[in-house]
Amino acid sequence: MRARALALLAAALAAAACTVGPDFRVPDPPAVDRYTPAPPPAAPGMPRLVRDRDIPAQWWEVFGSAELDALVRRALAQGPTLDQARARLVQAQELRTARHGAVTYPQFDATFGAQRQRIDPATFGFPQAPNPGPFNVFSVGGSVAYRFDLFGGARRDLEALAAEVDYQAYELEAARLTLAANVVVTAIRRASLAAQAEVVAGILAAQRRQLAIVERRHGDGGVAWLDVQNQRALVAQTEALLPVLEAQRAQAGHVLAVLMGDPPGAASVPEVRLAELHLPAELPLRLPSELVRQRPDIRASEALLHKASANVGVATADQYPKLVVTGAFSSGQLDLSHLLGSGINIWNIGVNALQPVFRHDELEARRRAAVAAYDQAAAGYRIVVLQGLQNVADVLRALEADALTLAARSEQAARADDAFRIARARYDAGGVSLLAVLDAERTRLQAELDRVQAQAARNADAAALFQALGGGWQSGAEP
User: Fold this and answer.
1) What mean pLDDT value characterizes the chain?
2) Exposed end of the chain (fewer CB within 10 Å): N or C?
3) Which residues pair with 354 in a beta bridge?
4) What does the pLDDT look like over 352-395, one tens digit per residue?
5) Helix/strand/coil percent split, the chain, to 5
6) Alpha carbons 437 and 424: distance in angstroms, whole number
7) Beta strand extents in 52-92 (DSSP E only)
8) Residues 358/325, Cβ–Cβ less than 8 Å
C-alpha cells in the first residue's frame, strides 16, 4: 500500500509538471526584398540572376571542369577540417544521449560487497563474551533514484543540448561549404597564375627579340645607348615577374593539397585550365528573407540563440523546489552460498524535497546572467544575418564590375590583336620595321594578360556568390 501510494504521488506530480522559462521562437527574417539599394545588377555580359532557382548540391559542377570536380570531391571526402567538425557533432550527440537517459529514466545501480572483519566484544563493553574471531560478510543489493522534473529544468537542459547538436550540424555544413569554396577559388587562382605565366613568357620572348634588334641597330649606329639600356631594363623587369608567378602557382598547389588532406610533397593535384572553365548564362539568386534559411552559418547562430533561450529556462527552474524519490535494498550474509537464497533483509525508500531558502539573490543573479547571455546571442544572430546580406550585396556588385571589366579587357585585347596583325601585314609589305611588329606583339600580350586576370576574377566571384547564398546543402536532408 505504501509503495502504491508513492507511485500514485509520483504520477500526480509528473502530470502536474510544467516547464518554466521562455519558449524559443525563430526570429523573423529581414523585411527587405533586395540586397542593394539599387535593383539587382544586370550589366552586359553578366550572367542573368534568376530568383527562386534552387542551388545544386554540387554547385561547383556549373563550371564544367572534370578536374575541378575531382578536386572538390577529394577534399570533401578526406579533408581534415571536416573530420574535426564531424567529431564535434558526434560529441554533441553523445552528450545529449547521455543526458537524456540520466533525466528521463530512473537511475538504478547494483552493488556487491565482500568484507573480511573481526570484532572484539570487549570494545563494546562485553569483556566476558566469547571472541568469534575473523569472519566474512557478503552483501548484494541495489539502489534506485528518480528526480521529478517538476518545473522543466531537465527538459530545458535537454533542449539546450539538442540546440548544441543543431549548432554542430550546421557548423559541419558550413565547413563543407567553406572547404568547397576554398578549393574552387584556389584552383581558379592557380589556373589564372598558370595562364598569366604563359602570357608573361610570351611577352618576355617578344622583349628579348626586340632587345636583339635594338642592340643590332645600336651596333650599326641607328639608336642611342640609352635605348639599349631601357630595353634591357624592360626585359629584366619582365623576367622578375616569372619567378613570382611560378612561386604563387606552386603555393596555390600546396594549399589545394592541404585542403584535400595530403602533404604538399606527396600530393597529386590535377591541373585546372582557366580556358576550360565555363560560367553559366544564369546564376541563382534567392530573396533576402530566404537567406536566413539557406546559409548554414546563420542557422548555426540561430541554434546558439535557441540554446541560450533554453538556458534561461534552466536557470529559472533552479529557483523552484526539486523532488527526488530514492530506494535501496540489499541482502547481507556471513556465508556466500546463502546470499541469494535468503531474500532481502535490508531496504529503504524515501522522498527528498529541496527548496532553496537563502539563495534567492544568487539564483536570481544566475537567471539574469542567462538572460544577458540570450541577449548577447540575439545580437550575435543579427550581426551574422546582416553580414550575410552584406556578403551577397558585395558579391553582386563584384560580379557587375567583373562583367564590365572583362568586356573592356576583351575589347582591349581584340583591338591590340588587330593592331598586331596590321603591323605584321605592314612589315611583310616593307612598310614598318620588325621593332614595330615586336612592340605591337608586346602590347597584344599585355592586353591578353589583363584579360586573363579579369576572367579569373569573374569565375572566382561566381564561386563566391554560391558560397554567399549558402551553397546547395539544402538540396539534401536537413542536419
Assistant:
1) 86
2) N
3) 322
4) 887 887 888 889 999 999 999 999 999 999 999 999 999 999 99
5) 65, 10, 25
6) 6
7) none
8) no
| Residues 467 and 202: beta-carbon distance below 8 Å | no
Q: Which residues pair with 453 in a beta bridge?
A: none
Q: CA-CA-CA-CA torsion for 398, 402, 405, 406, nearest 10 degrees? A: 180
| Measured distance CA(315)–CA(102) in Å, rounded | 19
- State the residue for C-alpha cell 541495489: 142
| Residue 345 DSSP code | -
What's the start-to-end Cα distance of the chain, in Å?
49
Q: What is the DSSP letter of 46?
A: S
84/75 Cα distance (integer angstroms): 14
DSSP 220: T
**Average pLDDT of span 180-190:** 95
409 neighbors 378 (Cβ within 8 angstroms): no
For residue 57, count other CB atoms closer than 10 A to its CB: 12
Between helix 80-104 and helix 153-219 the angle, nearest 10°, is 180
What pLDDT is recorded for position 343? 64
Type of residue numbered 86:
R
Specify which residues 282 forms β-bridges with.
Answer: 48
CATH number of 2-475: 1.20.1600.10
Domain boundaries, the chain: 2-475
Residue 441: CB atoms within 10 A of its CB come to 23
Q: How many angstroms separate the CA atoms of 108 and 331, rounded?
A: 17
What values do phi and psi take at 152, rounded to 5?
80, 15
Cβ neighbours of residue 433 closer than 8 Å, sequence gap 6 or more: 213, 427
Neighbour tally for 106: CB within 10 Å: 11
Q: Which of helix, strand or coil describes residue 344? A: coil
- What angle, rounded to 10 degrees, do the helices at 434-468 and 360-428 form? 160
Would you say 256 and 187 are in contact if contact means Cβ atoms under 8 Å apart?
Answer: yes
The total number of residues shown for the chain amounts to 479
Predicted confidence (pLDDT) per residue in 303-329, tens digit:
999 999 999 999 998 889 988 888 887
CA atoms of 253 and 178, how far apart (whole Å): 18
How far apart, in whole angstroms, are the C-alpha atoms of residue 40 and residue 392? 11
Sheet containing 322-333: order of strands = 107-117, 135-148, 322-333, 346-354
Least confident of 163-167, 238-242, 355-359: 355-359
Grid cell, residue 244, equals: 613570382
| Count of Cβ atoms closer than 10 Å to residue 324 Cβ | 14
d(C-alpha 148, C-alpha 319), whole Å: 15
Using alpha carbons only, how large is the chain's radius of gyration in Å? Answer: 38
